[in-house]
Design a protein that fits this description.
This protein is an alpha+beta fold. The strands form seven sheets. Strands 11-6-1-13-12 form a five-stranded mixed sheet. A four-stranded antiparallel sheet has the order 15-16-14-17, with helices on one face. A three-stranded antiparallel sheet has the order 18-19-20, with helices on both faces. Strand 18 and strand 19 form a beta hairpin. Helix 1 runs parallel beside helix 5, helix 4 packs across helix 7 and helix 10 crosses helix 11. The two termini are about 20 Å apart.
């Protein structure tokens, strides 16, 4: 699995994340071409090599030309994203990030999130930072993101609402449940945009995971500080996931719940990062039709999954047991087809590719966008998979 670790020893901001991605190998020219799909002609992305305390890094600056607007609300920001030409999954993840920022700002300032305004170039730089980061992470093939404990800085910062303590209230709210600290530097090191991107896309926070390092990137902050004002990004592969592992199998029989609720239950369980959920029709006592709900998850997920099922379903009890399972090395492989980019699930066993299957949602999206039959998209994906497995140039 291809993973990334953001080392936030000097905090993080949207432009630092973009800088780290470019420094780690993301093409700035391709990024600019993608950002053109936002149809914001007044904004330009500048990327340049700099030194911070003797360390080389990439500094990204979002520049506005003749931009008269000082702010835009959430609805206006989302309209720009929705009407852009970027891919659907990038739009969806970007929308999630913006809505999180607006939600915490609205709660802090006691206003509906729809009325929250994004400042600085009318929020256009935030669009570039967020959409660019989501797209860049996807392009580098990163499947899972880990984040260190975050240095938030200290002191005070002047903003639209006046003088606020660091970390700013919105930043702190976005980091709720995540490890933060201050090294004593009186500067805002972690911005709301940086916090929103990392906490939305990041899966785990804390120590660096075991990783076979492939690329390293440094994104430069704007200020010169006593320490290197950098965001370090480490990209590589995780330790082999093939072989045996122990999992917990949780089961419960249900015969008195509205079947429509199962869609909600399954969606929430997968959001909790369980390994699998499935439902089996069964006959219960007195020949009553029912459903056997089965959840497979890591052992550490047992307490929260148990609590969720007892609260959200009509079950009166659960049972579980541990099992061993064999699993392959897995990764997501983006391949370009004549219809567009499709992600494939790639499985290896003992170092050999044994399965390569296209993501259904990508194929469905392209079928709708290109107005071609879904089966043609799948056929093109099948050909691309065969080309990849034969090792021919694409």
């Amino acid at each position: 699995m291809r993973i990334a670790y953001f080392d936030c020893f000097s905090g993080a901001s949207g432009d630092m994340i973009l800088g780290a991605l470019i420094d780690a190998g993301l093409s700035p020219q391709r990024l600019r071409e993608e950002l053109k799909k936002l149809r914001i002609p007044t904004v330009h992305l500048k990327a340049e090599k700099v030194l911070k305390r003797g360390l080389a890094a990439t500094q990204v600056t979002v520049q506005g030309r003749n931009e008269k607007r000082s702010h835009r609300n959430l609805k206006e920001i989302l309209r720009i994203v929705e009407q852009s030409g970027v891919e659907t999954d990038v739009k969806e993840k970007s929308r999630e990030i913006f809505e999180r920022i607006a939600s915490v700002e609205g709660k802090i300032h006691r206003m509906p999130k729809e009325e929250v305004h994004f400042h600085e170039l009318g929020g256009l730089d935030s669009i570039v930072d967020i959409v660019g980061s989501v797209w860049g992470i996807q392009q580098l093939g990163i499947e899972k993101i880990y984040v260190s404990k975050v240095n938030v800085g200290g002191g005070f910062v002047e903003c639209e609402h006046g003088i606020l303590p660091v970390p700013a209230p919105a930043t702190l709210s976005l980091m709720e449940g995540k490890p933060v600290y201050s090294s004593g530097v009186e500067r805002e090191l972690l911005t709301p945009t940086g916090a929103a991107i990392l906490t939305t896309l990041g899966s785990e926070f804390g120590l660096m995971p075991l990783i076979n390092v492939e690329r390293i990137g440094h994104g430069a902050g704007r200020d010169d500080l006593p320490h290197p004002n950098l965001l370090r990004l480490i990209i590589g592969t995780s330790e082999s996931t093939s072989g045996k592992e122990r999992v917990v199998v949780i089961e419960t029989n249900i015969d008195d719940m509205n079947p429509q609720f199962y869609d909600y239950v399954m969606e929430k369980l997968f959001a909790m990062e369980v390994l699998d959920v499935f439902i089996t029709p069964v006959l219960m006592k007195k020949n009553r039709p029912g459903h056997l709900l089965t959840v497979i998850c890591p052992s550490e997920k047992l307490p929260p999954v148990t609590t969720f099922l007892l609260r959200e379903t009509t079950t009166l009890g659960l049972r579980w047991h541990e099992e061993e399972r064999a699993k392959t090395d897995r990764e997501i492989l983006p391949l370009q087809t004549k219809y567009g980019r499709i992600r494939f699930k790639l499985a290896r066993w003992e170092g050999k590719v044994i399965n390569l299957s296209p993501e259904y949602e990508d194929c469905k999206r392209l079928a709708l966008e290109k107005r071609v039959p879904l089966k043609e998209i799948f056929e093109e994906a099948r050909k691309e998979a065969m080309t990849f497995r034969k090792g021919k140039p694409r």
